[in-house]
């Protein structure tokens, strides 16, 4: 493990995140198999898991967000499972608070869950700032931004060409 990933792992202690080394960096993800956090995730009806893939370079790093959505159901006589993955820069916020009859026989919050996809990135960025590392956008984010800028220009030129050809013809 690099100094950067070890420092992020130390900062993630006591949180629902874990750090896993990869070939070119590390991943920070929700620790959904940890029994300590499973009850919270289960009560909140967790259907998505987030992972922040960090690529380490000599003087900079990149973060690519990955969201995996899972849905499963079992019953007689059917079993269904679906899986979907999304990557790039993902902005997601979830807040759920459910009041119900608790195990103690009182009406109180039985689920009080909040998630912001920024938390994982902020954890990584905090450690990186302390170590003097600079963040660069991953190619997938740069590609998406480029397409967002090029697409309106393309349609503007296309519309202008159509206008000219119809005016001439």
Throw out a few tags for this protein.
169 residues; six-stranded mixed beta sheet; two-stranded antiparallel sheet; flat
Report the end-to-end length measured between terminal Cα atoms: 67 Å
Question: Which range best describes the helical content: under 10%, 10-25%, 25-40%, 40-55%, 55-70% or over 70%?
Answer: 25-40%
The secondary-structure element order is HEEHEEEEEHEH
The overall pLDDT average reads 77
Q: Strand-residue fraction?
A: 35-45%
Task: Determine the structural class based on helices, strands and strand pairing.
Answer: alpha+beta
What's the total count of β strands? 8
Shape: flat
- How many domains make up the coordinates? 1
Number of helices: 4
Low-confidence stretches: none
* Sheet with the most strands, sense and barrel status: 6 strands, mixed
Radius of gyration over all CA atoms, rounded: 22 Å
Report on this model:
Strands 1, 2, 3, 4, 5 and 8 form a six-stranded mixed β-sheet that branches. Strands 6-7 form a two-stranded antiparallel ribbon. Strand 6 (93-101) and strand 7 form a beta hairpin. It is of the alpha+beta class. The chain has helices spanning 3-11, 35-43, 118-130, 139-168, and strands spanning 17-22, 25-30, 48-56, 60-74, 79-88, 93-101, 107-116, 134-136. The radius of gyration is 22 Å and the shape is flat. The longest helix is centred in the last third of the chain and has 30 residues, at 139-168. The chain contains four helices and eight strands; from the N terminus they run H-E-E-H-E-E-E-E-E-H-E-H. The protein has one domain.
